[in-house]
Amino acid sequence: MAAPSAMHGSKCTVRSISLPTRLHPHSLRIEAELNKLKAWEVSCASVLVSPGAETIQIGLAGVMELYNYVEELIHSPLTRQALLCHQHRKLVEEALDGSVTLLDACGTAKDILLMTNEHVQDLQSALRRRVETQALRKVKKDISKCLGALQRMESRLGSSPVLHLDHHLAVVVRLLREVSGITISTFRSLLLFFSMPAVRKMFGGWSLITKLIPMASGKGQKIVNEVGSVDVAIHTLQEQLHNSDAKVELQVTQRRLEALNFSIEGLEAGVNCMYRCLIQNRVSLLNVLTQ
After folding, report:
1. Which residue, 5, 60, 24, 2, is CA-closest to 175?
2. How far is CA 272 from the centre of its chain?
3. Residue-wise pLDDT tens digits, 208-250
4. Is the dihedral of CA 63, 168, 174, 276 positive or negative?
5. Helices 206-218 and 196-203, axial angle in degrees (round to 10)
6. Which of 193, 49, 222 is nearest to 116 (CA)?
7. pLDDT per residue as tens digits for the range 116-126
8. Is the pTM value of this prediction over 0.70?
9. How far apart are CA 273 and CA 61, in angstroms?
């Protein structure tokens, strides 16, 4: 899997979060990591469809690094002293409420990855279309529900004013909200990774997609990710089964299923690590309230 440093390669101009140098060094590290992830976010938004698995793995790795710095910031004496004030409990509770939504999203992603992995194994052994249709229907419902929850959380970010806070605490609150925002964006990209049906609608159906794929490939571009590539291969295979033995199409489908299975393994590892980071972050916030 590509390291988070791969995000340095983006040429997109991203607004920097300028923090005074007198702040805790972890604040500056968070600023730097956020700027890299915002460049990654812009590069994801610039592609025609959902980014591929490798791109999403880079985002997950960057967010995990970000949460390591957040942990150090929360545990710094200056931050803990500021957050322990009774009038600031609402700010901690806001972060705790958001952590529940992010954990739910991460759990949903884990379930979808597991379901997709099982589905890939079914297809590799039998290529049963009915199994695929039933599995994808549940996946689509879970994705839609989770995306809605993330959207609602995103709309609430920053609802509590940071006026009348001391400078350090105001910066900490803004950073925590920025971290939540980029985490939402990363999970959104992960969930949309499985949303090939939206691409079919965008291009007006299968016939045009199957024509565009070789044209885009010749220019070094992609209009489908690993999930979409399997979806297209299965559709092509079904069409060819009526005309011939479809030996070539069957081999192509099997190769693409193997590639998707490899991608899922990498994503599962990243999501599992992300889940542990979110748990640790929630525990740290709860400790602030209980002290």
Report:
1. 24
2. 12
3. 334 433 433 444 445 567 777 777 777 677 666 666 666 777 7
4. positive
5. 90
6. 193
7. 888 787 777 76
8. yes
9. 9
